[in-house]
Automatic annotation (TrEMBL):
UniProt xrefs under InterPro entries: AAA+_ATPase, AAA_lid_NorR, CheY-like_superfamily, P-loop_NTPase, Sig_transdc_resp-reg_receiver, Sigma_54_int, Sigma_54_int_dom_ATP-bd_2
Source superkingdom: Bacteria
Pfam families referenced in this protein's UniProt entry, alphabetically: AAA_lid_14, Response_reg, Sigma54_activat
Organism from which the protein derives: Kaistella chaponensis
Gene Ontology biological process: phosphorelay signal transduction system; regulation of DNA-templated transcription
Domain Sigma-54 factor interaction, chain residue ranges per copy: 148-377
Protein's UniProt name: DNA-binding transcriptional response regulator, NtrC family, contains REC, AAA-type ATPase, and a Fis-type DNA-binding domains
GO molecular function (one): ATP binding
SUPFAM superfamilies: CheY-like (SSF52172), P-loop containing nucleoside triphosphate hydrolases (SSF52540)
Modified residues (4-aspartylphosphate): D54
């Protein structure tokens, strides 16, 4: 049960206050302090949702009690009681941080209203604090899931870019070789954005047959083509109020590119076989391992779409350009892979790490993860350079 503290040196008044307020607020427990010093000790010892305090009291005045209590517990809510001669002091108490003051002789209705309003405010503040804690915890969990492992200058540059662009709705084109972590960057941007509570829909443009990509992106209506046995929502519509990640955008057909361009220009999509337009609010992130300027020059990619998608461009370098991150990546992968396999985490000795740093990682981080998994399964503990030589092909 939450507690309310009444600090009043006149027992008759404190008794009346307790009687009146307990009738109005039966769900609260009331504690009496006979002077300001005792009130301060009570506040130090317990948490009170509200303190109702007189101003003129022996040992410690209500004003001093307010100041000291707020230093100890800044969230404490005070309603002050003052005589007519103490109005200026009561106003000072409001400046210090009191919620309200009640003049003597006490108007009972005014007191009850003030106390109830103060409680409502305190409960609202507590709820907001809890929501902030939950949101912070959720954000930390999300960020941890998509954290960027390493401390190389190249990675720090990417992290700085993510932090800057995440808060906006700017479209981002993520470039770099296969396996370098482009998808991870996209997830990190979404996770740190204001759209993080909305969906993130991924589309691998290279994995969808060219004759189906329009249907995947924009949906279709029943009977619009062979096999369309029912209406289907497209990825853009599913991503409404969230983010759509178009991976391997360079493999998209020119026809689909034209429709994506229209969706960007008008924030509308039309399902295949329908004249209906569906308004969508979607942030677009795209990724490619191709040289887009060459793709444009060869007529395989629309220049106008490229400029629409690449408001911000983030380049993810190959692992060979950030080999100083290999040690941390091996530690990270060793931990999560051991957890996945339900085995004891294996260590990698320094010579094993050096051997791995000397390799050329054409498959980038994805290849490194596979190698670490192989060494955890087949290698000794700790994993040695001999293990690397035996089980990893250069």
């Amino acid at each position: 049960m939450q507690k309310i503290l009444i600090v009043e040196d006149e027992k008759a008044i404190s008794g009346v206050l307790q009687s009146i307020l307990s009738d109005e607020l039966p769900d609260y427990e009331f504690v009496i302090a006979e002077d300001g010093l005792e009130g301060l000790k009570q506040i130090e010892k317990e948490d009170f949702i509200l303190v109702v305090s007189d101003i003129k009291m022996p040992k410690l005045s209500g004003t001093e009690l307010l100041k000291q209590a707020l230093q100890i517990k800044p969230d404490t809510t005070f309603v002050m009681i003052s005589g007519h001669a103490d109005i200026d002091t009561a106003v000072d108490c409001l400046k210090i941080g009191a919620y309200d003051f009640i003049s003597k002789p006490i108007d009972i209705n005014r007191l009850i209203t003030s106390v109830k309003n103060a409680l409502d405010k305190r409960i609202l503040q507590k709820t907001n604090q809890n929501l902030k804690v939950e949101n912070t915890t959720l954000k930390k969990k999300v960020n941890k899931k998509y954290q960027m492992i390493g401390e190389s200058p190249a990675l720090k540059k990417i992290q700085d870019m993510i932090e800057k662009v995440a808060a906006s709705d700017a479209r981002v084109l993520i470039t770099g070789p296969n396996g370098a972590g482009k998808e991870l960057v996209a997830h990190a941007i979404h996770a740190q954005s204001d759209r993080s509570k909305g969906p993130m829909i991924e589309v691998n443009c290279a994995a969808i047959p060219s004759d189906l990509i329009e249907s995947e992106l924009f949906g279709h209506v029943k009977g619009s083509f062979t096999g369309a046995i029912k209406d289907k929502q497209g990825k853009f519509e599913l991503a409404n109020n969230g983010t759509i990640f178009l991976d391997e955008i360079g493999d998209m057909t020119l026809i689909a590119q034209a429709k994506v361009l229209r969706a960007l220009q008008e924030s509308k999509v039309s399902p295949v076989g329908s004249d209906k337009e569906i308004r969508v609010d979607v942030r677009i992130l795209a990724a490619t391992n191709k040289n887009m300027k060459q793709e444009i020059e060869s007529g395989k990619f629309r220049e106008d779409l490229y400029h629409r998608l690449s408001v911000i461009e983030i380049y993810v370098p190959p692992l060979d350009e950030r080999k100083e991150d290999i040690k941390m990546l091996v530690e990270h992968f060793s931990k999560i892979i051991s957890e996945e396999h339900g085995t004891v985490k294996k260590e990698f000795d320094e010579q094993a790490i050096k051997s791995l740093e000397n390799f050329s990682w054409t498959g980038n981080i994805r290849e490194l993860r596979n190698v670490v998994e192989r060494l955890i399964i087949l290698g000794s503990n700790p994993v040695s350079a001999d293990d690397v030589a035996s089980f990893v092909r250069k």
